[in-house]
Design brief:
mainly beta, 212 residues, four-stranded antiparallel β-sheet, 2 helices
């Protein structure tokens, strides 16, 4: 979520969360419904409650509910088919130093494993590594949502007003003005080539330098 134009035209909604822990687990019986969160453009929102986790065997699971408008995105290709809010990532840290939360094997990051299902918007905590020191007990998971804009087609064309250079001798490029926005691509190639003709990319602001 970035850029002053985007900030001015969007109201950040409250993101709601569900207790998706299986019946019979400590999380299901004791956590209740997690608090809703409304972040700002400049900072995160933090749940004021704390939740006890009986690691490493309790299958406590949290799910982010769908947020309106909900984006439709092909995660494999990065194509944004419908504009809306999109869960890009979940990151989990442990302890006062904010080190990555690991699974029981001691090497795999929990948030980069199958404990996180971005398609279902869930995180399952039963594989969490046990803390070895007091300052490693606290666990923090952050849900990273971004407003993404539906894709469109872009064609870059060079028009030569004078001189001997032909249009196809010019290399055209369109670079996202803000780095890291989901679905936006850098488009580059010779004018008139397929590389710069009717290319799908997410909407937004692009810079358009050209060179021979």
């Amino acid at each position: 979520m970035s850029g002053p134009a985007v900030h001015g035209s969007l109201t950040i909604p409250q993101f709601s969360y569900l207790n998706a822990s299986p019946e019979g687990t400590y999380g299901h019986e004791n956590w209740g419904t997690p608090s809703g969160l409304t972040p700002t453009w400049s900072g995160e929102a933090v749940d004021p409650r704390t939740y006890s986790l009986l690691a490493p065997h309790d299958a406590a699971t949290v799910q982010e509910a769908g947020t309106s408008p909900q984006a439709v995105v092909d995660r494999d290709t990065g194509d944004v088919r419908t504009s809306g809010w999109f869960l890009c990532n979940v990151t989990c840290t442990a302890g006062s130093r904010g080190t990555p939360l690991l699974r029981r094997d001691g090497t795999t990051r929990l948030d980069q494993s199958d404990s996180v299902d971005l398609n279902k918007r869930t995180i399952r905590l039963d594989e969490t590594r046990l803390a070895e020191r007091q300052d490693e007990i606290a666990v923090k998971c952050v849900w990273h949502n971004e407003y993404v804009v539906g894709r469109g087609r872009v064609t870059l064309v060079t028009v030569v007003d004078g001189g001997s250079a032909r249009p196809e001798q010019w290399t055209m490029s369109a670079t996202p003005a803000t780095e890291g926005l989901f679905g936006q691509k850098t488009i580059t190639g010779a004018s008139g080539s397929a590389a710069v003709g009717k290319v799908y990319t997410a909407g937004g602001t692009y810079t358009l330098p050209g060179s021979r």
